[in-house]
Amino acid sequence: MRLIKTEDAEGHVLCHDITQIIPGKFKGRAFKKGHIVKKEDIPVLKSLGKNHLYIWEMKENMVHENEAAEFIRDIVMGNNLKSGEIKEGKIEFISECDGILKVNRESLLEFNMLGEMMMATLSNNVPVKAGERVAGTRIIPLIIEREKLNHAKEILKNRSIVQVIPYKKKKIGIVTSGNEVYNGIIKDRFGPVIEKKVSEYGCEVIGQKICPDDTEEIYNAIEMFLKQGADIVCCTGGMSVDPDDLTPAAIKRTNADIITYGAPVLPGAMFMLAYKENKTIMGIPGCAMYNRITVFDMIFSRTVAGEKLSLRDIAEYGDGGFCRGCDECRYPNCGFGK
């Protein structure tokens, strides 16, 4: 830093806060550290007794924190995001739609290892709402070398670090199995639960079929909904390993590609995921009927965002896949599924 005359300070960056005192009225910061002096600031500064100022020497290869934050914003921010106001080299990113937040974790790590700049995000694959803040970045020093910014751009290679994938409206078929429900001994509770959950994503339930514990009838119901144009068939009931739990066998009979039968998530271990061409079939365990959030919620949200999950995607839920069972559920504002 160096000392210059105040009248020569236009365009320079202040190295420290400047306090203003008006007896009996005001005492506080008139100009913040990092402020770029404007022409109209000069008489105000002189009225505060500042005939000389300490300023940063803005060499040709140096960039002010706010300009640097704009540069970083343009290389890390992906689709369906907007940026907030830049303050002191900090900028936040806000979702423009309901959807799934996607974080390129490898790129985020590379970026944060560069030094003099940082970025923090919500967890990868977390559901977000329109207007929700999902990430932020900040330049650490007041000024930063342009070469450092260009290196960050080179490292990322046009790969945004964060983006939001919007939900797409899907048609849902529900297949419920169980002799006790089919024969009217007990009332079906699965259908209303699934219908409520999928409606929160703007999806349409095209029908529900209640079947006895019979592999053939469950299979026929699944195929019926697929032919009727269902994008996702949710199969409820009969997902355990008891002899009369026949839903997994019925799903396999459709010749769908079985991704997994079982998931490292509690509640939700007995979950099944399968794909038949561009259609999705889910075997939903009984816990979805009485637990507010289960593996179904995590997988369904990504499915309606257009993802086709692999076995690895499912296996990765083991880290964070244990629900604490809080008295007041705060999902997705918790560690479950992260």
UniProtKB/TrEMBL annotation:
Q: Which residues form the MoaB/Mog domain?
A: 173-303
Q: What is this protein called?
A: Molybdopterin molybdenumtransferase
Which pathway does it take part in? Answer: Cofactor biosynthesis; molybdopterin biosynthesis
CDD domains in UniProt: MoeA_like
A molecular function (GO) held by this record is: metal ion binding
Family in the record: Belongs to the MoeA family.
> Which InterPro entries does this UniProt record tie to the protein?
MoaB/Mog-like_dom_sf, MoaB/Mog_dom, MoeA-like
Which Gene3D superfamilies does the UniProt entry name for this protein? MoaB/Mog-like domain (3.40.980.10)
CC annotations in GO: cytosol
Question: Does the record's keyword annotation contain Zinc-finger?
Answer: no
